[in-house]
Design goal:
The structure is a homotrimer. By secondary structure, chain A is of the alpha+beta class. Chain A is built from three helices and eight strands. In chain A, the strands form two sheets. Chain A has a five-stranded antiparallel β-sheet with strand order 1-8-3-5-6, covered by helices on one side. In chain A, strands 2-7-4 form a three-stranded antiparallel β-sheet. Chain A is elongated, with a radius of gyration of 16 Å. The termini of chain A are close together. At the B-C interface, strand 4, helix 2 and strand 5 of B face strand 3, helix 3 and strand 8 of C.
Amino acid sequence: MKSHRKELWFEVAQRRAFLNITPQVEAALRESGIREGLCLVNAMHISASIFINDDEAGLHQDFEAWLEKLAPEKPHSQYRHNGYEDNADAHLKRSIMGREVVVAVTDGKLDFGPWEQIFYGEFDGKRRKRVLVKIIGE
Amino acid sequence: MKSHRKELWFEVAQRRAFLNITPQVEAALRESGIREGLCLVNAMHISASIFINDDEAGLHQDFEAWLEKLAPEKPHSQYRHNGYEDNADAHLKRSIMGREVVVAVTDGKLDFGPWEQIFYGEFDGKRRKRVLVKIIGE
Amino acid sequence: MKSHRKELWFEVAQRRAFLNITPQVEAALRESGIREGLCLVNAMHISASIFINDDEAGLHQDFEAWLEKLAPEKPHSQYRHNGYEDNADAHLKRSIMGREVVVAVTDGKLDFGPWEQIFYGEFDGKRRKRVLVKIIGE
């Protein structure tokens, strides 16, 4: 069994954004030389998500509006976590969108359906944060 | 390390439904000959889910009503993704229910608790869609 | 390839609670002797979650209030699953928080970001329930 580990770093200028990181994950897979296995991609920070969906700008605006409805950022005082911090909503939003994805590796490629793309969901940006890619297989 | 890949195809006659696909996943595991490892099951389409829960009809009606409350289908015009498409709500519902599950394989079986069953959650049906099963182990 | 399986048992005195189970998962990893691989941790019961977030009491109160808003326990009669059971809300809450996490194992350790901790989320307690840890790798 082979394994490969890579950290991806992001610094998002806004508080919230969605970044398509599929090319970076594909690059990590090529570096690994692994042809068959599983690829884990997870946010290393607890106010960010990794998820798979469609790379369509209208949908991303829908996600933003919907997450703000389900877990509004403001008023900051509505959350007990806030005080020194102001990012409780980011923890809730990330719980809906998920921490991680596991993607099959087949014949040296991410084994995706027609529209699957991997996104980094930032919910508390303006600082450097990390994503972990861990691939195991042969 | 061994690996096994299988696609499962579904065509659901309604827009939304939950299908218990545990028997198909168990069949793929038997075909693989793998005794110890991990089994990934993921929707290959971004308006469908794979999740684990109870096979109880009342609960499935509760899921349907609850997802419609959190991410209503209509009016279609409330979502920017809609226009050529009308399935933005399906992307949101799938985000709550999840894209994938990873199940332990122990002694040649899916290593489940007493009520765990694997479901395909269709949120934009009436066409053929796929689920990927990828098993790695020994 | 090596694999290791361990069940963790919990009996929570309240209906709902969050338990930091990171030390128990780390102990299972040490027992496994695995240095590189993947560690799956999943609830074996469908009214409980495993998730990764911050070990901060204010945030956990925020999770409790938020989940009660999105999927209220009462009135029990609002859910078709209830009758003989009264835990439909627990199934919904667990759907938001997730069944499982997959954590990278690197150099014999859980490969975590700075604040990541693994929690057992109990949504229908007062009885003994199980969590599965399955680790594969080398």
